[in-house]
Amino acid sequence: MSYSDANKHELFEQIIVPHLNAAYNLARWLTRNPHDAEDLVQEAYLRAFRFFDGFHGGDGRAWLLSVVRNTCLTWLSGKSGGASTPIEFNEQKHSNAAAPVDAENAMIRDSGIDSLRDCVETLPVEYREIVVLRELEELSYRQISEIAGIPIGTVMSRLSRGRQRLLDCMEAKA
Questions:
Q1: If we measure between CA atoms, which residue out of 24, 33, 23, 20 comes closest to residue 65?
Q2: How does pLDDT run across 23-41, given as a tens digit for each residue?
Q3: Which tens digits make up the pLDDT trace of 88-124?
C-alpha cells in the first residue's frame, strides 16, 4: 500500500505511535538495559516508518512489536553472539543489615516483585520474549505467533517452559 507523505505521517501517528510503551517494554526485557532499549525502540520506529508501506492493515501493535523484536534480536546477535550480560552484585539489596520497620514492610511487600523480575531476566531470550508478550503485554497466542514468526504450538510450548522456569526460580528463591 502506498501512502502520500502527509497521509503516511497521519496514519503512522494514529496506528503505530500509541504503542510506544509496549515497544519499550519489550525492548527493555529483551535487552535487559533501559538505555539500549530506548535506542533500539528509536531505531525500530525509524524502521517501522520507513517500511510503513508494507503494513497492510490489521493489528498495528503486533506489527510494531514484530519490528521491535527483530531490531532487538539483530542487535543482541551482533553483541557478543547474544551472550547474557553479567549480573552485578548489589550490596544494599543483598545485605543483612537491619532496616527500620516501615522499610522492612516495604521490602517484604516488594521482594516478591523483585524476585519475579530477577527470574524473568534470567530466562533465555526465546522464553523471555514469549512470557513478556503474553503476561505483560497480554497478547494472544496468534499475535505472538505473528510477531515471533513461529507456529502457535511453539508459542504455547515456550510459554509453558518459560512459566515452569519462572516457577522453579521463584521456588529456589523462597
A1: 23
A2: 999 999 999 999 999 999 9
A3: 434 444 344 444 446 666 665 566 778 888 899 999 9
Residue 162, C-alpha cell as written in the block: 518459560
C-alpha cell at 66: 514484530
78: pLDDT confidence band, cut at 50, 70 and 90? confident
Domains and their CATH numbers in the chain: 1-82 (1.10.1740.10), 93-174 (1.10.10.10)
- Crossing angle, helix 20-31 and helix 60-78, to 10 degrees? 30
What are the angstrom distances between the C-alpha of 101 and each of 1, 98, 150? 61, 9, 49
Question: Nearest-CA neighbor of 156 among 125, 130, 128?
Answer: 130
